[in-house]
């Protein structure tokens, strides 16, 4: 049927041109043709609409994922119509392109007919799939059909309304119409349609758009797409859209700002703009900058994206650079993650497209700036010195002199004084007379000059310049002569000077002056350029400090952008970029794959892609860059770098030339400094983690070159050599089986001989680097040597022999320092060797033996299986039972060796125990600080060996920790106590309060060490926190920033353990608000602000509101009232929280007379209102506010009454301990011996408590948490700050 109608309409369309051109067409024929056209088009468009509706239904069904057989259905119903749709649209377009007005008698085509023809087009565009690529031909056909209606049928007004309506209700048509309008404006000249559409959108009510989100999205998309395609026309009509910038719809604001950005990029770009265009450009930039601080985060982020595009297309004028950069740096502190992310991207774009320099170091730019500024100053001074005073012409000078000269001439006609006539005589010649008169004028002797002129007129009458018209009076004649003489108009005055010289000199002066001014302008431009570059560098440096702190944000995208930013900054030579590159290193341990990969990509771009040509040059650049990172790097930094390099090595991204260069530096074949040589060894060790054969195949070279006789010159190199060789033990080859023997070297290997000799030699030579080397050497011996205890025993014998020889000479205290440093290192390694290596080897051998037994019994088991059908246990069950029992037996064997053998009289260690105890028990006799610190550390390590020895010497250890006057001793013992708390928790548990007491140590280094140790123990659930965690909270107000950082890190990690901070908050508030705690009120507020930032759940907030209200009943002082109310003010109160306040109003009603308490509750209500509340909740808030105000006023009235007339005494506030500083007073070291009585064990204390429990006089209400976790076997949820940076010694 469609084909029939198509044929009919097509035939009629072919006949119409001849009919329309026939001027003799009768009215009846014209009406017949018109009716036929209307009927054919009506039927054809009706069929098109029907088929199009069916197609839309099919499109919706195709989008339904649950429908079956959609392929067959779509093929049968839609494909045929899609094939016929384009020819029909072309036919209708052909019809509309004819001059159909002739059928209407030369009048306009009926609007109903045009609407009939175009209605099908609009209905086709309503199909949600019309934007797909496969419908491109259909879209083009519809576009040309509508264009024909617009050009030939006056469809402008109807099209404007229809397009705006469809864009509002069908979001998918916005890009289609934007492309169509762009085509109509470019190819059909319909530019006015753009203005009509934008004016129609601009006239929409902003309040209505704020309520209709779908319509706003369509308008926004249409404006943005239109600005991208025809920005010049959008610019001409931009004014009609500007009112929406003040509307509530952020989507419309984004669209209009995006249109402005497109105009700036495509139209208002370049240096050749006219003045009006420059003004428009600056206004648009001002609007964009204003919306960087928009109230909506999506607008702020969008504007930053637009500025990024503007900067990338170099459309931002240099004069606007500084202001936009400042705005971007300011947005780095934005609360919205997406805004921060886009601010970082904008700063990166500024760096990549900056017009200043490829190197943006402040130090490099400062010196040239100062130099050029000094040069500019000199040029300006030179111009001022050579600058001639303003040139005054003789005529101007004469006008200034004329009043005085006229007065002098008038005096000539007055009686003269006696003798004056004889003084002034006229010269013999005219020339000399003229010179005489001119000289008198220069000397400002006007009266004498006038008198002399009068005489010259009489004597030289008729000669130049003394000629005057006879009709003038004498006064005028004298003035005329004087004027001619002064202005030089006399012909004979300058007859000797060539007439052209003066003018040529003036021309040269003018040219020279112009050159000077040009150079001055160039210099000013250069100084301004350098100043802008310097200011830009300063802003980038400021941004670096802010972005470096964002690397540990919770948002993965922000962290990735920060990493990319530092990669960009590093390419521009900013010195502070190296700090950011180092700071991103720990992120290699991130659990987020995206962050870890971003770190690897960053280091891959920075170090694995140098710009050098040859492989050798690239290797040198890589080694040099990595060596710079390791300069003064911490252990954590080095371990992070090791993880990155091992990843690169495993992926074969580090070329063999790098390894070759490192070996050349280590063997000194390639000249390098000692620092570079040490860095080469460290890099080899890092690479060996990925490929152990790098070290294994060159072990002899490491030993001979690294542990040679020169090792005593600097023990840092042999220490690093030991660390590198230890990689052979920690990185077994992947080919080895699970139960294969561990890699060990024979006892007579030259490695251990060199180590023994180097350690023994260094014992007698005092060096601060020998002790770390000795510890690394002992560790390496126990890791790799067969019979390690024999090697270490030989080292101990040699060192002891040297110590005895020195004792015989002199210097007793210094001679005793090193022996027990060696002994304690050996003792601890011996324990680790027994519990790790020996235990693992016993288990390995047992498993091998069990496997052999299992194989032998397999045959007999198969034979007996047919006969035996009873309930016999299988071999796997027997092996499992045997394995579990054997594990316990082996562990018990190791424990018994440590307890009974290592420190008994037969073992070598026992010889050092009395010496250590003597030094520790006599601090007055052995006062050397290094000796005392070493002895204290040795005591702690010896306690790690045996629980019996630990139990008997814990009192000595904690007494030294409290009473020692040496901070080093106290720090060492805190670390030792932390290790003991993990190894023997039941023994150390009674002494926990003494560990917490060190958090109030007067020495900052001791407090910091105690904070680190307690952080480790608490997060590992090794010590109790109930009742004592407030000591950690008090570190948040410590004067030392490092200690504050430790406390912040502790609570940050604690917040990751579920409700830990919430559970501890009541206990912390109770202790810190106590009058005897020593915490000032302002300091308490600082602590609480930090802790309450971790309370984010509504249930936690509601529970805390109730608990804090109940706490008002037990509070004793005004200070506690204020503290509790301040805590309430810190909570984000919800509707339920407000109900809790209302329910517990009686708890704090009588405390509202205190202005501070009342103000806190007012703050709570104000914050609640700002959050936006429902009408019914608003009534509840107003009711509560009235009650608060009434109680507050009633309390004030009663107070005034008491003060005025009542004799009732006011309650006396409790006496408080005077506080001298914001931090609590340090714990006094002068404690009595009774303070260090060994506490009773937990079992004995519980038994005594059950035998006799004294009666309580009064019930004390305590402020406890909901959830108490008393279990000591909880899982450790935190890995210490960086891997390898634990607190174990």
TrEMBL record:
Domain Condensin complex subunit 1 N-terminal: from-to ranges: 3-159
Sorted UniProt keywords: Cell cycle, Cell division, Chromosome, Cytoplasm, DNA condensation, Mitosis, Nucleus, Phosphoprotein
A GO term for molecular function: histone binding
Function: Regulatory subunit of the condensin complex, a complex required for conversion of interphase chromatin into mitotic-like condense chromosomes. The condensin complex probably introduces positive supercoils into relaxed DNA in the presence of type I topoisomerases and converts nicked DNA into positive knotted forms in the presence of type II topoisomerases.
Localization per record: Chromosome; Cytoplasm; Nucleus
Compositional bias segments (type: Basic residues): 1244-1259
Family according to the record: Belongs to the CND1 (condensin subunit 1) family.
Residues covered by the Condensin complex subunit 1 C-terminal domain: 969-1128
Record field: compositional bias (Polar residues): 1200-1209, 1222-1231
Coiled coil ranges: none
Main localization (coarse): nucleus
Chain segments carrying region Disordered: 487-514, 849-875, 1190-1273
Domain of life: Eukaryota
Gene Ontology, cellular component aspect: condensed chromosome, centromeric region; condensin complex; cytoplasm; nucleus
Gene Ontology biological process terms from the UniProt entry: cell division; meiotic chromosome condensation; mitotic chromosome condensation
Biased composition (Basic and acidic residues): 849-861
Name under which the protein is recorded: Condensin complex subunit 1
Signal sequence annotation: none
